[in-house]
Amino acid sequence: MAEPNLSGDEYGTPVDLSLWAKERGLEGARYPLACHSLDSAAAALVLWREYLSPGVRETIAAAMRTDTEQAGRNVAFWAGMHDVGKLTGEFQRQIDVDLSAYPGEEDTGSRRSHGTATGEWLPLALPCVGYSADPSSSVTPLVSQLLGGHHGRFGDQPESRTGDPLTEFGFASGPWEEQRRALLHTVFDVLDRPAQPEELDGPMAAVVCGLVVLADWLVSQERFILRRLQSPPADGTGKALRAHFEESLRQIPSLLDGAGLGHITVPPATFTDSFPHITKPNGLQTSLAAHLPSLCAGPGLVLITAPMGEGKTEAAYHVADLLGEATGRQGRFIALPTMATADQMHTRFRSYAEHRADYVDPDRPATLALLHSMAWLNPDYVPADLPATSTVLSGSTSEHRVTPFAATDWLLGPKRGLLASWSVGTIDQALMAVLPAKHNMVRMFGLTGKVVVVDETHAVDPYMQVLLEQLLRWLGALEVPVVLLSATLHHSIANSLVKAYLEGARGRRWKRSEPQPVTDVSYPGWLHADARTCAVTRNLDLDPAPIATTGRAPLTVELAEVGSREGRPDRSAVLRSKLAPLVEQGGCAAVICTTVAEAQATYGLLADWFAEHGEDAPELHLLHSRFPNRQRTEITETIIRRFGKDGAREGSRPGQRRQPRAAVLVATQVIEQSLDLDVDLMITDIAPVSLLLQRAGRCWRHEHLGIIERPAWAAGPGLVVLVPERPEGADGDAPQRFPRSWQMVYPLSLLQRTHALLRRRSGEVIRIPEDVQSLVDGVYDDESLAEDLEADLKRMGEEMALRGFARDAVIPSPTAVEGNLLGLSKLGFDVDEHMLATRFGADSVRVLCCYVDAHGKWWLDPECSLPLPETGAGEKGSFTMEQLRELVSRTIPVRAEQWYGQRLPEANRPPDPWEKSAHLRELVLLPHGVLEDGTIVPAELGGREWLLDPRKGLIH
């Protein structure tokens, strides 16, 4: 019988170093469980001291009712015990190992996870190191539960029904139990025996779990373990294991450096110091800079409402700095509605960080992350030399040198992006924290050390609004400062969001009175909601004078009726009429269509018309979501250069010191928020009034800069709203029939109400900002606008249903998990994150258009010059980062329809070797035929034909 590897008795029963925790990827070696436990404890202690923002340490310590030093040692102790459930026969027998020295605890076939075993054993053992066994105390059960959930899902707190709970839960006494107790005492001793905290609640336990998971991921990297195996402990005595722990403390900071977890910090600064290019801050920026600092005594929420192009972004950066300084939160997360807006903001925010951040040591890099599913395609964010795959146990790292703010291989791993010091991403990245997805506590932990800025708050639908409200409750409870930005926000939504944040804060330690309602919204203006007092202060409370805004010419709005052809809107006559001055005299215009198909058709009819003008034809662009990613990026860059302020300054704007004299951009609603464009005329399908105002914000947007030469026909900003033609013989007050395609995108009642509102204002201009809030509020609140009671009731019913779906999907409020974390993992099975959508009905799939020649060979391009690779050029046929970018940059997102839920035909499935790549395995192929004469034959899928047109994008 093999003898266990025991020696020494300084700390009682020595730990057996033959009992393992890691073996996969270790070249045949096994890493002792005791070593991994001490590594995790050391990592947690280093993270506590070097990674956590000061304010987060204070928040956690206050919740425990102890000081930050003791709180940190407790957290490290808990991290060191997260894998104690591996000290069971059922786990150790997973590999061929001699356990003859450990009788009992035979494999029962229950397949209990080691996390579950950890959660079941710790309540029985923690009292032996001073933890309370009193059922009324929440500390012991919550510590056990958070550690039991370190693989991403929390189990329920176990309850013993017998007098022998060890036996009941499958923990036999004898050598196994001695080893578990030996590990417990060893970890407890090396952390200098921290006293049990007086208190612990569910929300803070969830955050601590995120820290424990991060510690575990860091020290589970192959390179680190293989390096530690080169100098293993001499034996299992306390002295030898303490030496191992202290050496890990010295080595773990390099893991943080390699992962890109360094801090980006900014010194206190005035607004003008922060933005030297703004020589004279506008009224909004001046008001915030003058009055907000006196209100920032702790955590709180700031809501900023102002017109498009009024400097809200710079205001938000400054407010985030003020709130971060007041709360000791060094991190930042800026949430945007789309990937396009996130990409744009990442560039701007990085420039701000380069100007404002304290010196960043290149040997201790900090990442400014870009967080969305396609971020890794961005070469400005992800270095080209990063490996496409990682070889790690629970994480990954890279030993190459990185530049400040650049991505690291480790942070590009799933669920880790919010752990970066500063980050920009889609709002989904934050909303996933309040869905019962696996490792949601890691996302919540990542947000806890940041100031969270939510831009374009008005863009959330009723489903997302419920998710955002729940996120704000959690952020309020965790003392996370928040900034909300909006150009067109209904006052009831503003009230709901502010109330949610204060409810979360009020439900924690400050049992204050009910938050006061936000009955109206100053526009432009701002308000501050104090998390500790629940007081709401508006800018008008401090200075009754209205905030001065950039001078803008009044907006002229014209309703233009369009007919229909074959059941579809026929825009040809209206567009020829409204664009005729542009064609003859020059200028820039945009035409926004409701659907991609209608944008493609509109582009086609304008292209035919413009072709009649030969060399004098206006330049024509098309932008929508169904272009291959690389082509969409190229189109976006082109139209920003053509219609943006830099283009106007450089002379590349059409009609301005160069040819062509005119240009027209046809697009879907992707341009209403994503791009900083300026056109002389905006023509748009009707949409809810708040979106029309967003679109109008792209008309004469840069006029105040004095850099654009307007054509003579453009006397002022104009918005032409396309509405359906009234049926012949219909009464003047009868509601119009809107195309079905428009009703699939926007609720019919909002289209009707917006139309009635604009008809009522016929002949009146819209003053910005004076009229914006009344229009946004009125379209919902003015019941005299209702033309179709049935449509109104349908919209309200659908909104209620969406809110109901969202309430069923989100995790409980912070107060509902005070003593039990089970609600954070309320689904009893592992749900793929794609099934927990943050946008209702927004499931999509990426398709790759490819080509099959007459000989059956597969190609990436219609010219049949780039072969479709079945395997990669990397080791063992893996795909390199360059190859993955080449393939995925050619993909197109489309709505997942019924065909996606079925087994795809073989022709539409990716090659079998692609299954090994997370980026390729879910793609759907659309093989186009290529005839001998070069004719392209559309692909077939789901009963449809699909054709990738080089000018119009994917048509189906």
Characterise the protein shown here.
The protein is α/β, with parallel strands linked by helices and 956 residues long. The protein has 31 helices and 26 strands. The chain has an eight-stranded mixed sheet, with helices on both faces. The longest helix has 22 residues, at 238-259. Mean pLDDT is 89; it is low at 1-11, 388-402 and 828-835.
What topology does this entry show?
Layout: E1 20-22, E2 31-32, H1 33-51, H2 54-64, H3 68-80, H4 89-92, H5 114-125, H6 139-148, H7 165-168, H8 175-190, H9 202-219, H10 222-229, H11 238-259, H12 271-274, H13 283-291, E3 300-305, H14 312-327, E4 331-336, H15 339-356, E5 368-371, E6 422-426, H16 428-431, H17 440-448, E7 450-454, H18 462-477, E8 482-486, H19 491-506, E9 525-530, E10 536-538, H20 539-542, E11 555-565, E12 568-570, H21 572-585, E13 587-592, H22 596-611, E14 619-623, H23 629-643, H24 645-650, E15 662-667, H25 671-674, E16 681-685, H26 689-696, E17 718-724, H27 740-745, H28 748-760, E18 765-766, H29 772-781, H30 789-809, E19 844-852, E20 858-859, H31 881-888, E21 891-895, E22 924-930, E23 936-937, E24 939-941, E25 944-949, E26 953-955
Parallel strand pairs: 3-8, 4-6, 4-7, 5-6, 7-8, 11-17, 13-15, 13-16, 14-15, 16-17, 19-22
Antiparallel strand pairs: 1-2, 3-9, 9-10, 11-12, 11-18, 19-20, 19-21, 22-23, 24-25, 25-26
Helix pairs in contact: 1-3, 1-9, 1-11, 2-3, 3-9, 5-6, 6-9, 9-17, 13-14, 18-19, 18-30, 21-22, 28-29
